Amino acid sequence: KPRGYVCGAFGKWHLGGHGFFPQQQGFDYYFEGNMGGGYPDTKDAGKGEWDITSAAEKFIRTNKSKPFFAYVAYHSVHIPLNVRHDLIQKYKALPPGQIHTNYIYAAMIDSMDTCVGRLIDTLHSLKLDKHTIVIFFSDNGGLTVHEGQHTPATSNAPFREGKGYLHEGGIREPFICVWPGVIKPGSICDTSVCSVDFFPTFKQIANVPGDIDPNVDGVNILPLLKQTGPIQRDALYWHYPHYANQGGKPGGAIRVGDFKLIENFEDGSVELYNLKTDISEQINLTEKMPQKAFELEAKLDLWRRTTGAQMMEPNPNYHSDSVIHTTGNLSE
After folding, report:
1. 140 and 173 in contact (C-beta within 8 Å)?
2. Separation between Cα atoms, residue 155 and residue 163, nearest integer Å
3. Burial state string for 99-118 with b = 16 or more CB within 10 A and e = fewer than 16
4. CA 54 to each of CA 115, 122, 125, 292: distance values in angstroms, whole numbers, following the listed order
5. Which residues in the chain belong to E strands, given as ranges?
6. Residue 27's CB: how many other CB atoms inside 10 A?
7. Spatial distance between the Cα atoms of 67 and 30, rounded to a whole number of angstroms
8. d(CA 175, CA 75)
9. Structural contact between residues 86 and 24, judged by C-beta atoms closer than 8 angstroms
10. What is the DSSP string of 241-289?
11. Sorting pLDDT into bands at 50, 70 and 90, what band is 215?
12. Can you tell me the distance from the alpha carbon of 118 to that of 120, in angstroms, rounded to the nearest whole number?
């Protein structure tokens, strides 16, 4: 914003209540849209992607003569799974694939893809595409367990597990970037990056003066996008001291090069994988490579203590015979 950018957020937020809404975090405009309460074949089927797209298009047209930042977070393809009836019928009529068989999920992808296309077309029609960077990104792996109607929704094969887990199926997401004249079309980068890298990267792209605070988690990945050189980072970290409603348990993870270690907070056990040779994380190398496991676990522990990461605390009200029953119709 100090560089004159107008900022708009559209769709999912989920980053806190009072004091943390988009307008209180620097955005000039916010449009949430319908999160999708209805189920397939009902009159309110859908996840609000069409209204979110329309709001984002209006924002782009209104600010076409200014530098702008549009954060468009579709509720699709999140559960509950719902989308327009005609798209459901389109994919229901097709034969299922060998791995992906959920025709409602396929219809939701179709709908979201169309909406992304509308945004791209808007940039083209306004002749903004040549100097606009577009990033398509997801926030977690696909849902692979039962959690409401018409789930499990997808498969992350060959990656293990899915949303709510620290295995690759839970933390690997698509990342597609288009920047005419800067990023070579069709190029592929094998270097692992993370969403925390967006902030320092956007700061560099927008020519915001001043150095990045050394305590900022991410790094500037512009050299990777431009293919001018590597980035300087020794490790990637994950911290999740929670019980996920998909079944995942509290833990943390670290990746250094091809090696990844997962620490399970309940019992202190660790898992060590070589992702170059074992992308499905089936062979735990802890016993075969104890020194490597020790090094990564120590590095992960140091990172947690350095950043002041919150850890679990005992629940004095917990009783082992307590049971919580849900209907399975959870929205998260």
Report:
1. yes
2. 11
3. eeebbbbbbbbbbbeebbee
4. 9, 10, 15, 51
5. 6-11, 29-31, 68-73, 134-137, 175-178, 236-240, 251-256, 259-264, 270-274
6. 18
7. 17
8. 17
9. no
10. -S--TTS--SEEEEEETTEEEEEETTT--EEEEETTT-TT-----TTT-
11. confident
12. 5
Distance CA(202)–CA(258), nearest Å, equals 27
Residue-wise pLDDT tens digits, 57-115: 999 999 999 999 999 999 999 999 999 999 999 999 999 988 889 999 999 999 999 99
- The average pLDDT across 12-40 equals 84
Q: Would you say 221 and 195 are in contact if contact means Cβ atoms under 8 Å apart?
A: no
Tokens of 243: 């019980």
CB atoms within 10 A of CB 306: 9
- Among residues 286, 245, 230, which one has the least CA distance to residue 263? 286
Query: Percent of the chain at pLDDT above 70?
Result: 93
Q: Letter for the amino acid at 145?
A: V
The dihedral built from the CA positions of residue 223, 225, 228 and 232, taken in this order, carries a sign that is positive
DSSP string, 297-323: HHHHHHHHHHHT-------TT--TT--
More confident residue, 267 or 331: 267
Residue 113 corresponds to which tokens in the numbers above? Answer: 């893809």
Contact 260, 272 (CB under 8 A): yes
